[in-house]
Specification:
Structural class: mainly alpha
Mean pLDDT: 78
Order of helices and strands: HHHHHHHHHH
Helix content: over 70%
Radius of gyration: 18 Å
Distance between the termini: 33 Å
Largest sheet: none
Shape: globular
Number of helices: 10
Length: 194
């Protein structure tokens, strides 16, 4: 992740406090300051599946769509840069899953009168879309068991934070984060195998 100077870090902290008070301009400024980091996260989210992103989504579009979702919030309640990036990653995941579901519904007659004689075409769903939904469902299942493990996965895999940064953001020890990461990876591997 891009690391800014001390002044940028203090500005991020001030902007987060303002965003928590409902200042929409603070959210705008946060996106501007952390745009490179957000693009990196968006790129990682889009590479989950083979080929191009879902329904033609690209990195820039994903960052902008997640911004629109965050800007609609009355308040943004995050503690620090790591929390903000993890929150943005969660918003990006939500955007991707919604687009995949929407495309899937459209393929299966969602609102349009579509007639096809080739059932192979009607039943086919790109592997990338299926994989995205499978990862989302596995993370939702894991969240029911241990929400912190999902936070660790989001911060480590999607945001790219180091174990020390995750530990600080979550207020736990580095060894706890390492254990959570290993357990989460094992759970996701099992859940995605079938």
């Amino acid at each position: 992740m891009t690391s800014g100077g001390r002044s940028e870090m203090s500005e991020v902290t001030e902007l987060l406090a303002s965003a928590a008070q409902g200042d929409a301009r603070a959210v705008d400024r946060l996106f501007h300051l952390l745009y490179a980091d957000l693009r990196q996260i968006a790129h990682a989210k889009l590479r989950m599946g083979p080929g191009p992103g879902p329904v033609g989504l690209d990195t820039t579009s994903l960052v902008h769509e997640s911004y629109l979702r965050l800007a609609r919030l009355d308040q943004l309640s995050v503690n620090d840069r790591s929390h903000f990036l993890a929150y943005a990653a969660r918003a990006m995941r939500s955007v991707i899953v919604d687009l995949v579901r929407e495309a899937r519904a459209d393929r299966h007659g969602g609102g349009a009168a579509l007639v096809t004689l080739d059932t192979g075409v009607a039943d086919s769903t790109p592997a990338g879309d299926e994989q995205i939904l499978a990862v989302h469902e596995a993370l939702a299942e894991l969240a029911a068991i241990d929400p912190r493990m999902v936070q660790v996965v989001e911060m480590r895999y999607f945001v790219g934070l180091e174990m020390d940064e995750i530990a600080r953001a979550l207020g736990v020890g580095k060894r706890t984060v390492e254990r959570d990461w290993e357990k989460a990876r094992s759970f996701l591997y099992s859940a995605l195998k079938h």
